[in-house]
Amino acid sequence: MARSGWAEATDSAGACPAGEIVFAGLASGPVPPTLQRGTWRCALLNQASDYSIYRQVVSQLMQGEEQLPSLPALTLDIRRALSDERVGLAALVRLIGRDPALSALLMKHACCALYRHAQAPRTLQEVIVLLGLAEVDRITMLHSIKSLFTLQSPAHKRLFVEVWQRLAFKAGTCAQLARLLGQVAPEHALLASLLSEVGTLAVLSAFKDEAAIPSSELYYKLCREYSKSLGVIVLKKWAVDEEYIEVIRQAGNWGFSAGHGLLLVDLINLALFHAIKQQNSLAGLPPLAELAAYRKLLPPLNGVSAEGELALVVEHQADIQVIAATLL
User: Fold this and answer.
1) What is the pTM of this model?
2) What is the DSSP letter of 150?
3) Every domain of the chain and the residues it spans
C-alpha cells in the first residue's frame, strides 16, 4: 500500500504510544525493529510537509493559465495548412520539412505495425500520401505533446521517461485494441490516449523550474488530485475537439457507460486498466469483468487471461510494443 495510506496513533503529546502504528485505519501492530519511533514519525511528517509544498506549486500553475504550455507556432501553422484545401502537397512537404524531428516521426509511424504495406515509403511526400492528412495532423499533435513536456535535468528526465513509457504502452494498447475491435480508427485511439494524459504531463511540468521534484509516489498522488483538471484546462487552451476533453473527464471511471457500442472512452479505459496493471500488479483495480467497457465486448473478444487481463492484450503484446516504440 502507498505510504500516503499510513497514519500514526499518537498520544496527547504527539508521540507514538508503545511503538504502535495504525495502518490506514486497519489493525495496528508493532513498529519493525529497524524503525525508530522518532524516525518513523519524522518521515511521515516530512512527507506531509513535502506534499503540501508540491501542492502549492501545482496550484499556482492552475491559477496562471499563461504558464501552461502552448502549442508551438510551427505546429499551429502545419495544422492550419492541413485543414486548408487550398494548400497543395508540395507546400505541405516544405512546411513539415522545417521540423526534421516531426518528419522523422512521420516516417517512423508510416513504417510501423499500424500500416502494413509491401513497400515502405521513402520520401516525406510518400509518407504524407500513405498516412493521409488526418493522420499527419494527429502525429503532429503527438510530436508536440512530447516535445512540450520533455524536461532536461537528470532528475526531471528520469521521472519523465518513467511516465512517458507508461503513456506509450497505454497508447499502444489503445491503438491495438482499436485495430482488433474495429469500432474506432487506431490512429484516433492513439492520439486520444495520449491527450487523455496531458494533465499527468502538466503536473510534471509544474516542477520544471524547481530544484527539487517529488518522488514517484508523491508525483502520482499529485496526479490523482490535479491531472484531470489540468488536462481539461490545457486541451481547452489548445482548442482540441470536445470529444478529447470528455475522454479526460471519464478516464478511470470504470463504471462509465454511454450507449451499447464500443466508444473511444471505452478503449481508453481498457488501455488504462492494463497500463496500471502492468506498472503495479497489486494496484487496487476492480476485476476486469466489472468494467463497463469490458461488458460491451462479445465472445470470443472478451476472453480473460489467468492474470485477469484481456486475452487480446496478452496475445498481441508484440504489436503493442511495436506501436509504443514509435512514441519513444
Assistant:
1) 0.76
2) -
3) 3-65, 69-143
Question: How far, in Å, are 67, 119, 256, 271 from residue 277 at the CA level?
Answer: 33, 37, 19, 10
Cα–Cα distance measured from residue 144 to residue 245, given in angstroms and rounded to the nearest whole number: 17
Q: What is the H or E stretch that residue 125 is in? A: helix 124-131
The secondary structure of residue 285, as a DSSP letter, is P
Q: Given pLDDT bands bounded at 50, 70 and 90, which one contains residue 189?
A: very high
Mean per-residue pLDDT for 126-149?
88
Tell me the residue ranges of DSSP E strands in the chain: 6-8, 20-23, 28-30
Tell me the chain's radius of gyration from C-alpha atoms: 23
Any long-range contacts for 65-74 (C-beta under 8 Å, 24+ apart)?
A: 65/233, 65/237, 68/202, 68/205, 68/230, 68/233, 68/234, 68/237, 69/148, 69/149, 69/202, 69/205, 69/234, 70/237, 70/238, 71/144, 71/148, 71/238, 72/144, 72/147, 72/148, 74/98, 74/99
Mapped onto helix, strand or coil, the DSSP state of residue 328 is coil
Cα separation values, 25 from 6, 28, 202, 220, 226, Å? 8, 8, 33, 22, 25
